[in-house]
Design goal:
four-stranded parallel sheet; single chain; mainly beta
Length: 324
């Protein structure tokens, strides 16, 4: 499908609710059961963690540690690899190169319109990391890469422009992750989940929740899933995308309560030569979009969550997603 160059598709950000610093977040612990589909409930609040990152002991980031404010590449990369819990407040525009290691027990939160350009963050074999309220643009590899059995990661309220590869890639046995309230503004390969068709070690891992994200003129991978089961994709707003969700290589994906507008293929079973996975769809809202492909069944979702009506998702997500 033809599309204008992504760099010309920048849109002014809507007004958004205030975001609390992650060091003071009230972390929601895992619950049992779920709110029935179609129930009337408010969107999860900006300070409330929902989804797979509440499991496996929960995700607190740098809570309990000190706080440092950084405004240069050197200060940021030094803080990212300090031992122990730490809240890192990012100020101004910081130009990075390549992928930069992030250690465990870190909260990285933008203040005053912070922007990361040029490079990205690499969470490699780490745990308990929160990334919030940052704008990423012009990254030379990935903006955020989560890999090598990293667990309990929360990527929340960020804005992603365009870059060389993925905006948020999650792979190589990583697990217990929530990706929420992000604005993807024109990216191409947006969110990969699962390294490759041959990396069967991902089976039994890659449990990720994607909710209240705004896929805004972004092309593909929202997400593209291999092996993960169950992967939960709910209350996202898809606008003008080549495709939304793809379930491949035996994955199990629950797609519910999303709003698809001008999306050529909202959901696919199998993609680009990969074997099919399972995909269950319910209570989605389609405007000017193709059909949702479904197949098989998906394992139960173990945590509690509130589901917004799909028809209200566009207004909710465009009013709240992205960095402040």
């Amino acid at each position: 499908m033809s599309r204008d160059n992504a760099d010309t598709r920048r849109k002014s950000l809507r007004a958004r609710p205030a975001l609390l610093l992650a060091g003071t977040l009230a972390v929601v612990t895992a619950g049992t059961g779920m709110t029935p589909a179609g129930a009337s409930a408010p969107a999860p609040s900006a300070e409330g963690l929902v989804g797979w990152a509440t499991e496996n002991g929960g995700t607190t980031g740098g809570a309990g540690g000190g706080t440092v404010t950084v405004g240069s590449a050197g200060e940021l990369t030094d803080a990212l690899t300090q031992s122990g819990p730490l809240v890192i407040e990012v100020s101004g525009t910081i130009n990075l190169s390549g992928m930069n290691d992030v250690g465990s027990d870190k909260t990285i939160v933008g203040v005053g319109g912070a922007t990361i350009t040029g490079g990205g963050f690499d969470i490699n074999g780490q745990s308990n990391v929160i990334i919030q309220n940052l704008t990423f643009d012009d990254w030379d590899d990935d903006a955020i890469n989560v890999q090598e059995s990293s667990t309990n990661i929360w990527i929340d309220h960020n804005t992603f422009g365009t870059g060389s590869d993925g905006a948020v890639d999650i792979k190589r046995e990583s697990d217990f992750i929530t990706v929420s309230w992000n604005h993807l503004d024109g990216s191409d390969k947006s969110m990969l989940l699962g390294h490759s068709d041959s990396h069967t070690e991902d089976q039994g891992h890659l449990r990720v929740t994607y909710h209240h994200n705004w896929f805004d003129g972004s092309e593909t991978r929202h997400p593209r899933v291999r092996f993960g089961d169950p992967v939960h994709v709910f209350n996202n707003y898809y606008y003008d995308n080549e495709y939304g969700v793809a379930s491949t290589e035996g994955a199990g994906v629950l797609v519910e309560g999303n709003y698809f507008e001008n999306c050529e293929d909202p959901a696919l079973v199998g993609y680009a030569g990969s074997d099919p996975g399972d995909l269950v769809a319910r209570d989605n809202h389609l405007v000017g979009s193709g059909e949702i492909q479904t197949a098989g069944s998906v394992a139960d979702i173990p945590y509690a969550y509130s589901l917004d009506s799909a028809t209200s998702v566009k207004d909710i997500v465009t009013g709240g997603a992205g960095a402040n």
